[in-house]
Amino acid sequence: MNSPALKALLLDLDDTLIDNSMDTFIPAYFSALESFVASVIDPKRFIEKLLHATRAMDRNDGSGPSNEEVFAATFYPALGVSREELEPVLGRFYAEAFPRLEPLTRPRPAAPKIVEWANNRDLQVVVATNPLFPRTAIEQRMAWGGVGVDRFDYDLVTVYENCHATKSSPAYFEEIVDQLGRRPEECVMVGDNWGWDVMCAGEAGIPAYWIAPDGAPEPYPAAAIVGRGDLDSFLAAALDGTLEAGWAKLVKAGAIG
What we know:
Layout: E1 8-11, E2 18-19, H1 22-37, H2 43-58, H3 67-79, H4 83-97, E3 106-107, H5 110-120, E4 124-127, H6 135-144, E5 156-157, H7 170-180, E6 187-191, H8 194-203, E7 208-211, E8 227-229, H9 231-240, H10 242-252
Parallel strand pairs: 1-4, 1-6, 4-5, 6-7, 7-8
Antiparallel strand pairs: 2-3
Helix pairs in contact: 1-2, 1-4, 2-3, 5-9
């Protein structure tokens, strides 16, 4: 029997490829949105309905419309403003105000080296970030972190326009695998969130490498992982073959799925 071969690398974005704490970023993002839309709509009501529509996206199970379509069908009617009226305002927000959030994000030096390594290995590369944002918001953050779509080749960047589930469901990972034309065990998911990046990926049959600080206890429930460490440790494991050796051992043992 032929040895298994790693074919695809799935990379989380926030607090994996880039330093971008959602605890800091989301409040600043909401504040910027409130200021920008205040001239056309009550900002507090805007955020309330935005959160409502985000929760609707998070319930998407992969069997129906895209996350963008779920968002639109929930958000605009609840707000009482037509999509045609408000969408251009949001477009201007992402072009004019969103870039001012860049100082909240810091590059991680290992990130571009990892993407370059994967490109050189002819792996399929996915930026597997939770697809609750439009493409522009995700691609801007990638650029801020030095891993922009203008710099590297990506087979897929998950955004709310092209996904039909979120990271809270294994259906999100199943959709990625289907789009890549791969089997789950041919992939590795790399991310910092135990529930989303390790557990849900594992439920879809995808092995995971957990980005975590030294000494951090593994949460409950436990899961089989390819390895763990910070992004520099992952890069070292990729370069010296430890990553693929750990991945192959896990796959052969049938420890995922």
